[in-house]
Design a protein that fits this description.
This protein is of the alpha+beta class. The chain is built from 20 helices and 15 strands. A hairpin with a 3-residue loop joins strand 2 and strand 3 (about 175).
Length: about 600
């Protein structure tokens, strides 16, 4: 005993209450005193007088259940590893102010006080006794006080319900009983499952496979040969859980082996590969949740053997939903880092891409399952932008150096285009080869290059590819399904074959673009007229000695056609450029002088 003596009629030393006292609410006063420890203290369990041996002896002597409830006290309330104690210790780490309050112990003690019946039902009929247990509403009226709010009580109650081995809930009342609840059955099965972690690993893999189905992925590769090569799409290899336990050097060595090799051969499509690395702090959470999911499933399969009631089956379903939610949450946070290969000083190094401070928006599917791959792709395509789902056709010309070299490279096969983008580190990473197909369609329409199918044509002595002009698609709209990425061929406009004089091929190549200067075009922007001289009107073209092109272009088209002018200058040695421009409201003299005339003079192009 400690502190002042309690007022009458409450008598904690005897635990005897008259009908009048109980009906007057003094039983609640007794619960409150035991729960809060206002008059009784304990060195064993701070915050609850039930931790005092003297108090426990007096209490259980009164209710006549001393020996039967030893297991209840040991496992759920006052034992060294009791559930209520563990909940309070965890909460104290998260909220240090709760270290003294011990909210879970208070709630558990209050439930224990109401677990033996004896209270009369309110109303005129005083002969009917209430069943053992306490409703959530009454529990709140008992436990809520100046230093504990209702949210804390409700949170602790939920944790006690999920973790205590002898706490029962019939849908209305909470009550401690000497018989274990389904939680104990689940715990026993969990111990059996824990002895074979391989079962848990296989279940996690099975769940991941279901969530990654339909995507370009490789799950838990054992070595480099398990990761496919020469696949024309962006491939993500999800590393196994054991990968996180390795040292940093071992992980990097394993990753480089996958990036560089395909078994005993060098890997080709390394620019289309990424490794999703598991986060170590989520692995333990995931394993625990899956372990309990398996345990619950085993208990459900033995429902008849355990004589489970409908209420207990309902509790199993609730617990299963809780553990499944925990597993999905862990899946969402399991792969938040992606490794990509990059070239540095002629050697392959690892570029780590992490979520960082920008949270991913992708969460659960309609089935409430984690969208694991969608989150990884959101990271590399939107948050960090390392992989792209579109491609400018000019990048094909730029990366493959079309029009450069001696002799100039004037075309290449579409198969080489696909292979190049997925092989060469430093090229744009693409989600799939369909992006290349769209870029070729756009390049044909915008006159960046022409396209033909049926393999690579030979290049003639005149610098033109020897292919029928009717088979060349240029300056026209092409359907995506017409582009054959296996046997197609793209060629620069100067290398597109042309018919004799007077013929007008559909979508002819653009000619030299005018230099900046005062120009006026009589054609709409983007159109061109072509005049070739020195040809005879026969099926076999004669030697062509002169090319004249007249067209009108805006700023962007001018830049796009400049390569063609440079190619023509290479062929002819020099080109004569006439530029005309007209503006109805007149030119700004200052801008015209500084932006046009002076740059041309500095280049010795005009006097």
């Amino acid at each position: 005993k400690a502190g002042r003596m309690p007022p009458k009629p409450y008598n904690p030393s005897g635990f005897s209450y008259s009908k009048e006292e109980k009906s007057a609410g003094n039983f609640r006063l007794a619960v409150n005193e035991l729960t809060y420890g206002g008059y009784w203290t304990s060195m064993d369990v701070p915050g609850s007088a039930i931790g005092s041996p003297a108090v426990r002896l007096a209490f259980f002597k009164e209710v006549g259940q001393q020996s039967d409830f030893q297991a209840v006290l040991e496992h759920d309330l006052i034992g060294s590893n009791a559930r209520a104690r563990r909940i309070d210790e965890r909460r104290a780490k998260e909220v240090p102010a709760e270290a003294i309050k011990r909210p879970a112990m208070r709630v558990a003690t209050a439930i224990l006080m109401y677990s033996f019946g004896g209270l009369r039902r309110d109303g005129e009929q005083e002969t009917e006794m209430l069943p053992p247990g306490i409703t959530q509403t009454d529990l709140l009226s008992v436990c809520v006080g100046p230093d504990m709010d209702s949210n804390t009580v409700i949170a602790c109650l939920k944790e006690l319900k999920d973790n205590c081995l002898y706490l029962h809930f019939d849908g209305v009342r909470y009550c401690f009983k000497k018989d274990p609840n389904v939680t104990l059955l689940v715990e026993q099965e969990a111990e059996a499952v824990a002895r074979d972690e391989g079962v848990v690993r296989e279940k996690i893999k099975e769940m991941l496979e279901a969530r990654l189905a339909g995507h370009n992925v490789e799950l838990w590769p054992a070595n480099s040969s398990a990761v496919p090569d020469k696949q024309p799409y962006f491939l993500v290899a999800y590393m196994p859980l054991e990968f996180a336990a390795k040292s940093k050097s071992d992980r990097q060595a394993a990753a480089k082996d996958i990036f560089e090799n395909y078994g005993d051969k060098p890997r080709l499509f390394r620019n289309g590969l990424a490794l999703a690395v598991p986060t170590s702090d989520q692995i333990a959470v995931l394993r625990r949740a899956v372990r309990y999911m398996l345990s619950i499933d085993r208990v459900k399969n033995k429902a008849a053997q355990h004589n489970l009631t409908n209420e207990q089956k309902s509790q199993l379903r609730e617990r299963e939903a809780t553990e499944k939610a925990a597993a999905e949450s862990a899946f969402l946070k399991l792969y938040t880092e992606v490794w990509l290969p990059k070239l540095e000083n002629s050697a392959i190094v690892i570029e780590s891409v992490e979520v960082g401070g920008m949270p991913l928006q992708t969460t659960l599917s309609e089935k409430k399952e984690a969208r694991v791959h969608e989150r990884v792709m959101e990271l590399v395509t939107q948050i960090k932008k390392r992989v792209f789902d579109s491609l400018n056709p000019g990048k094909i010309v730029e990366f493959f150096k079309l029009g450069e070299g001696t002799p100039a490279k004037l075309g290449l096969s579409t198969a080489d285009v696909v292979s190049g983008f997925y092989s060469f580190l430093g090229f744009t990473r693409l989600t799939s080869d369909s992006i290349i197909r769209k870029a070729i369609v756009r390049g044909v329409k915008e006159c960046a290059f022409g396209y033909t199918s049926g393999g690579a044509p030979a290049l003639g002595p005149d610098g033109k590819y020897q292919v029928m002009l009717a088979k060349v698609r240029f300056d026209t709209v092409v359907a995506e399904d017409e582009i054959d990425l296996d046997s197609g061929f793209v060629m620069l406009p100067p290398a597109i074959p042309q018919l004799g004089a007077g013929a007008t091929p559909t979508g002819g190549p653009p000619g030299p673009t005018p230099m900046p200067g005062p120009t006026m075009g009589g054609l709409p922007a983007g159109t061109a007229s072509i005049v070739t001289a020195g040809q005879l009107p026969s099926e076999t073209p004669a030697l062509q000695t002169r090319v004249e092109l007249t067209f009108s272009a805006d700023r962007n088209q001018l830049f796009g056609a400049w390569q063609a002018i440079a190619n023509l200058a290479d062929l002819a040695g020099n080109v004569a450029v006439t530029v005309r421009a007209e503006k109805a409201d007149g030119f700004d003299k200052s801008k015209l002088q500084n932006g046009v005339i002076e740059p041309l003079r500095e280049g010795d192009l005009i006097p």
